[in-house]
Amino acid sequence: MFRLLAWLATGVVLALAALILLCIQALEMRPLVTATDELSAASISRAKAILRQNDPRRMAPGSTRDIRLSGPDLEALLNFAARRGIKGNAALTLRQGGADIGYTAMLPALFADMGPGRFINVQARLGVGKQRLEVEQVRLGRIPLPPALFEVLLAEGLRYTGLAPELELLTKTVAQVAITPDAAKLTYVWQPELLDSVRSLAVTPAQRERLAAAHRLLVDSINQVARTRRKADLADVLGPLLQAAGNEAGASRLSDAYRDALLVTALHLSGHNIALVIPEAARWPRPRPVALSLRGRGDLAQHFVISAAIAAWGGESLANVVGLDKEVSDSRHGSGFSFVDLAADRAGTRLGELAVHKPEHLAAAIKAGIGDATLLPPIDGLPESMMASEFQQRFGSTDAPAYRQMSDEIDRRIKTLALFH
């Protein structure tokens, strides 16, 4: 009996030693993929076009559609998704009939002195099988993994996250996948159930309740102003809204409360209907009509709040790119390129980042009172309403020194605001 226990103890020790060795082998000193720009303005434009072409509200059940995505767009979207899951950087290269993916995640600094490295590098070679991508080769650090084992581990991981039913439905929806060195083409058959799955993934039941509460506070804040006037400064609504949201949430959930409040305000000012992802929102109460402005302009209030919400929910670089993309689009058709709008975008982005990373600082500023001058610096002297020809003549491009000089001036003005110190 004692000999059996000794053998069992030895086996456990050897198994633990093997596991530790595998973990050490999986860690490396250098990252396989370094940080890249998250999304370009061009990627945002193409993504919008794809969404317009594949709007589920315009598609009949059983209809077939094609989506074509270039390698850079896929890589940008992959990074966007990766940085909101397990934080890391991804690289993708398309080839005929498949793709090669690299991914690097960095462990916290406390692991730096505990082993040979703190980077988890994954390399995967994918090929096109029957209606789906198949894993051909995988390496975790210096460890080669059997593709079948990797797929089993991936399936178990998805089961743990609760995404398995959605993935199965998506697999059934995809009719064909084709990959060339230039782009990936996905042919799918639209199924209405997919939209329900997307809705459930996009907003959890807990988030629905939080957004409903934030919407109620927004309505209360607007209606309070609407008792005496039909026009108001953005700060007259946003300040009381953020304060009420913070008071209800408490210190432990301050950041979430601010994010929710910014999102419902952005949806209100942009005219977008959240009922697309939360159907019951169609029955939520509507506030009285009040025109909100920032520095006397309604468009700046929109730019500011929408950028704040995007930054709070999606990251600062995404908000900056979306704001720049709109200005470039306006220079080609519409109101023209505006550095004034861009200033509102940048200031709103800073507020969104502040709400997430320094909510206590924002709470103190709100308690002290905020106004137009708190949120947006003076806009005098900033060129606007420039069509493409004029913009190109005066500033060249968004990479030219003249543009960078004006961009730096906007950042300098924003840095003078006490709110962002």
Topology:
Elements (H helix, E strand, L loop, with lengths): L1 H25 E2 L12 H13 L10 E7 H12 L5 E8 L2 E9 L12 E10 L4 E8 L2 E3 L1 H15 L2 H10 E6 L3 E7 L2 H11 L2 H22 L4 E3 H16 L4 H17 L20 E3 L4 H17 L1 H17 L6 H19 L1 H10 L3 H4 L12 H8 L5 H15 L6
Parallel strand pairs: 10-11
Antiparallel strand pairs: 1-5, 2-9, 3-4, 4-5, 5-6, 6-7, 8-9
Helix pairs in contact: 2-11, 5-6, 7-8, 7-9, 8-9, 9-10, 9-12, 10-11, 10-12, 11-12, 12-13, 12-16
Short recap of the structure:
The chain has two domains: 28-200, no CATH class; 203-420, no CATH class. 55% of the residues lie in helices and 16% in strands. The chain is built from 16 helices and eleven strands.
Task: Tell me about this structure.
The chain is of the alpha+beta class and 421 residues long. It has two domains: 28-200, no CATH class; 203-420, no CATH class. Helices cover 55% and strands 16% of the residues. It is built from 16 helices and eleven strands. Strands 1, 3, 4, 5, 6 and 7 form a six-stranded antiparallel β-sheet that branches. Strands 2-9-8 form a three-stranded antiparallel β-sheet. The protein has a two-stranded parallel ribbon with strand order 10-11. Strand 6 and strand 7 (143-145) form a beta hairpin. Helix 2 packs across helix 11. The protein is globular and about 65 Å long. 29% of the residues are buried.
From N to C, what is the helix and strand string? HEHEHEEEEEHHEEHHEHHEHHHHHHH
Q: How much β-strand is present in the residues?
A: 15-25%
Poorly predicted sequence stretches spanning 5 or more consecutive residues: 1-21
- What is the oligomer described by this structure? single chain
Distance between the termini: 69 Å
| Number of alpha- plus pi-helical segments | 16
Q: Considering DSSP H and I runs of 4 or more, what fraction of the residues is helical?
A: 40-55%
Major beta sheet summary: 6 strands, antiparallel
The helix/strand class is: alpha+beta
Total number of domains? 2
What's the rounded overall pLDDT mean?
Answer: 79
Work out the number of β strands: 11
What Rg is obtained from the alpha carbons, in whole angstroms? Answer: 25 Å
Can you tell me the overall shape? globular
